[in-house]
Structure formats: C-alpha cells, structure tokens
Amino acid sequence: MSIKKEFFGVASGGEDVYKYTMTNKNGFKISVLNYGAIIQSITFADGEELVAGYNSIKDYEINSPFFGAIVGRVAGRIKNGTFRINDKEYKVTQNFGKHTLHGGKKGYDKSVWKVSEFTGEKECSVTLEYISHDNEEGFPGEVINTVKYILTNDNEIILNIKAVSDRDTFLNPANHTYFNLSGNFKENILSHKLSVNSDYVCELDSEMLPNGNKISSAGSVFDFRELKKISEGIDKNDEQILRAGGYDHPFILKKNVSGSQITLKHEKSGRYLEISTNQNVVVFYTGNGLDASMVLYDKWPCSKYSALCLETQNYPDLLNIEKYKNCYLKAKDEYFSYTKYKFGIKK
Q: How far is CA 41 from the centre of its chain?
C-alpha cells in the first residue's frame, strides 16, 4: 500500500491544492484532492479511467457539475432555500433559481480541506477535515466535518463521513462521483446494467423536488430490483423520466440487507461496482446535464449520459416534507455516513 502526494494547482482563493493517490497491492488506484474532498480518479492496474474528472483545478472551479466532490452541507435541492428547525426559519443561499442546490454558492465541494494520511499493510487512507462556520451559506451552527477515504487490498473504497455541530442544524452530505465502467469513456452508461435493492422511489414535482410521495418500482421504469440495462428505463415515455431528462431520483434502500444494495456492471469489460451503505436512499443520476464543454482529463468531451452518479444519502429536502421535518442534526450529536464501493472484474 502506498500514498503519493502531488501538487495539483492553486485555487482561486490562493490555497495550494494537492492530489493524494492511494495504490494497493493489485495496482488499483484512487486519487483524492484536498479541494472539495474530490475523488479525482479511480483506475485498475490497466490505467483505464472509471470516473469523470479533470486535470486542472481551474476546470473544477469553473465548469464542474460536482465531479467527484463531497456536496453539502445538504446534498440535492432545498425548496425555496428555506427550512425550519425548532420553529425558527432559516434562509440559505439560493443558487438554483429560487432553490438551494448542494449546499449553496460555496458548499463543501468548493472548499479546501485539511488532510492527514495513513499507510498500513492491509489498507491506507486519506482523512480530510473542514470546519463549516456558523451561518456559512445561511446554515446554523459550526460544523466540524471529517471525510475518510480508505483503500483496501480487496479493491474496496470505504467512505466514512462524520460531523458534529455546536447547534441544531440541517446536514445531509453525499459523494457526487460520476462512474463509467467502460474504461476511458469508450461508451456512455446506457449499456451498463444496474440493480438497486429498492421497492420505492421518491416522486419528484415539476421543479425536481421531492413532494413526499413514493412511487412503487414494481413493473415501472424504476424497477431495478434485478440487473437491467439503464437504456430500458430511459427509453420509456414516462413523465418522471421526461421531466428529468433521464434518471435523477432517490431510490429508497431496503434496510438490514446482507451484501451489497447496489450493483453496476459493464458486461463487455467485465467490470463491476458493488455498493453497500447505512444511508436511507441512493440518488441515481444519469448525467442528464453533461455536455461537450466538459472535457474530461483534457481528452474526452462529455455528452449526455457519459457517466452516472450513485449518491448515498438521507432523504432529500427532508425538513420541508412533513413526515421528516424533525430529522435534523442535533447539537453535539455525531452524524455518521458509511458507504463501501467494491470494484472487480468478472468475465
């Protein structure tokens, strides 16, 4: 196991940005930036890229749809940029029309994190810390955030997110990595097969906000209970899919499930990704907003469906939905999110 630290560039705020590349005994690698706690690259020993990213800090700052980043304080949209805690209304930065997206104008994804490293025989890790100050983007409380990426010799990446606030606050971070298992973006993600252990998805309204209703996945475009090509659902004339331009939906995960809850496969290469988590939902997003202005690693122009996200998190916008309105992080309680990504190749 090894970790290599390299200079990546200088952020617009003058901070030095570094890339930390962890490598296991199989030659499997993950590179992480101290800017946005971003997963910048994931490769097997063959070096073929499996995630969307850039080689330049400027590209991440100017034209990134949250590639690989930790988004927060709150992933997804907050309706009208407002929420209530203890009968007090808070107004946060509205950066998506009248709504808030992924934490506001300067969320976790645009912040520089403090880094520590660990290298052992069976695993190595990079731990990033960021202190989000009281009233940052309008959110209450000073929050100490810790993100830990662990690489094992079994080609597993374990993501632990911890946070503690000194005031009751709204917190729901997520990792926003875009995956494409074809290798070096040879194909888009429509031929990938996906399974999600979920019987229901959250219904979205005309502004892509959850309305509190659930849609049964059985027999619908959201039925990924068995491995199915992503194209089979996107090609259907379904109102929810047409509204989003593809998938952009929270799948409610079953609890107490043994093994992985999510599987992604690319049959031609044999590559697969299995995901297990302690979170309530996974937001499955098919890269509906990707376009040719985003040139990955200075080599591969994006297009719609070039890569997909599988964002493990809590229910989106939960404080604005009646049945979840008391689901905020209480002062001094520890937030903890666990997600394991296991990569493999099986012909």
A: 14
